Amino acid sequence: MSKEIGITVKKDENFSEWYTQVVLKAHLADYAPVKGLIVLRPYGYSIWESLKSSLDQKLKATGHENGFLPVLIPESLLSKESDHFAGFTPEVFWVTHSGETEIGDKLALRPTSEALAYSMYAKWIKSWRDLPLKINFWNTALRAEIKATKPFLRTSEFLWQEGHTVHATKEEAEQEVMSILEMYKKTVEEELAIPVITGKKSEKEKFVGAVYTTTMESIMPDGKALQMGTSHFLGQNFSKPFDVKFLDKQNVETFAWQTSWGISWRLIGALIMIHGDDKGLVLPPRVAPIQVVIVPIYYSPQDMEIVLSKVSEIKQALTKHNLRVHMDVRDEVTPGYKFHDWEMKGVPLRVEIGPKDIAKGKMVLVRRDNLKKMDLAFKDTENGILCVLDEIQQNLFENAKNLLREKTREVTDFDEFKSEMETGTFLYSPWCGQTKCEEIIKESTGADIRVIPFDAKIQDSKCIICKNQTTIHAIFARSY
Fold it and tell me: 20 to 30 A Cα–Cα from 413, which one of 176, 219, 310, 348?
């Protein structure tokens, strides 16, 4: 494969360019004609489908149902919760005309769905018998990201999942918040093989309109943080302006308690950055569109017949285990080209079978995570390949955990903090809880509080800025 076709920069030398090349050359996505938008290609969409299918099953198993919301929201509705809407105003795309005719009430292209969903919930909920109401929406959202765009990480339109639930009690709503966050963590760690740190956002960084926001954060190889998903306790902050209330069992009218939560295709961006290497994409088996690619090797018609027969047999055996298997029977390119092509696309396991392998009763396996080769007897095909795929999944997770450990440091001195932040890292530091100190750190270093971990050490320390005693320890980082 020529350098023009393959990845032409090294990951640790030009991370941004490397990332863009992987997105484009691995056929995940391409740039759309409108700045800030991307077109998701089938290979990239398949990864999203895998995540969507897994999470959808988990949500339905816990009593959530899917719904659909339109993309247009009238300005008059958005302004009902003014503080919330103000947080999105700079990013809103507006529809002002229908054909050549100017419309009266401007329509926003959905930046988020709270206002629209809750105006409907107010119509649907009348009694405690209607609760809990737990609806999930697989939507797109639109936010004007014109300047610093990056495929999957920062685009003007993105695929996401947003859940909006209504509960009779505060306790039930808060349980929902934590249950969803744990569901997200399980999905990201077990399927994307990316470790995350869970906790709360600070008051300054929480979702606008929420009582509090829980989050899961990860760090990328370039030292920047990426928010992987959030789950918000909204309290009654939205039920009151949108009149979401119900008659309880004592026939007393009361405002409901609400949550909202979501993840987006940003997870695909994290997947690329965490696991990819200088050859291109590296995919964990559980979300890979193709888990096993079989490359037949032959140089004569006689060999071709024998090899393709064996390859078909192997594929049939593997698909019985619901593995996603592809036979690369392209005759217009060489086996070497195929090897490089599938390595760039990140297929977890390559199987090579030629006439000499058949004579020896074995095949050659090549792992994408470490590029190691091994022989596997045909008689051990099914168990052998299933075991190797599990090893690849686990190895990618362990490598990512090592990255997280290497890039997380505990710092209590602000001069050291500023120095360490230049290297790109998660800095775990004591903070007094005051927004003023948080803002000083942001102004001085460009870093903000990514997460106040649930498992943070409870110990007396002095705030890294004001030196007041505190037991709060937060993780600071620059972010995407």
Answer: 219
- Which residues, at least 6 apart from 184, have a Cβ–Cβ distance to it below 8 Å? 216, 228, 229, 231, 261, 263
- Both structure tokens of 194: 């990316």
3-state secondary structure of 412: coil
Termini Cα distance of the chain: 33
**Percent of the chain residues past pLDDT 70, beyond the cut:** 97
For residue 153, being part of any structural domain is answered with yes
Domain membership of residue 333 (yes or no) is yes
Q: H/E element holding 191? A: helix 170-191
Contacts of 217 (CB under 8 A, 6+ apart): 196, 197, 198, 199, 225, 226, 227, 228, 450, 451, 475, 477
Residue 373 forms beta bridges with which residues? 366
Distance CA 414, CA 195 (A): 27
Collapsed DSSP state (helix, strand, coil) of residue 419: helix
- Write out the residue range of the structural domain in which residue 111 sits: 15-275
Please report whether residue 121 resides in a domain.
Answer: yes
DSSP string, 433-457: S-HHHHHHHHHHHS-EEEEEETT--
8 A C-beta contact, residue 274 and residue 186: no
Same domain, 26 and 168: yes
- Residue 192 is predicted with a pLDDT of 98
What sign does the CA torsion over 133, 136, 70, 87 have? positive
Place of tokens 């090294």: 10
Measured distance CA(184)–CA(215) in Å, rounded: 10
Distance of alpha carbon 462 from the chain centroid = 35
The DSSP element (H or E) to which 237 belongs, if any, is: none
Going by C-alpha positions, the residue among 248, 262, 345 that lies closest to residue 24 is: 345
Given a contact cutoff of 8 angstroms between Cβ atoms, the answer to whether 142 and 232 are in contact is no
Any domain includes 7? no
Token pair in block for residue 332: 């217009």
Please report where in the chains the tokens 């690369």 appear, as a residue.
328
Chain centroid to Cα 24, Å, comes to 19
Mean pLDDT for each 10-residue chunk of the chain (480 residues)?
Answer: 73 97 97 94 97 97 97 88 68 92 91 93 97 97 83 95 98 98 98 98 95 98 97 97 96 97 98 98 98 96 94 97 97 94 98 96 98 97 98 98 97 97 96 97 97 90 96 96
Q: Name the DSSP class of 399.
A: H
- For 226-254, what is each residue's pLDDT tens digit? 999 999 999 999 999 999 999 999 999 99
* Burial of 358 (C-beta count, 10 Å sphere; 0-12/13-18/19+): middle
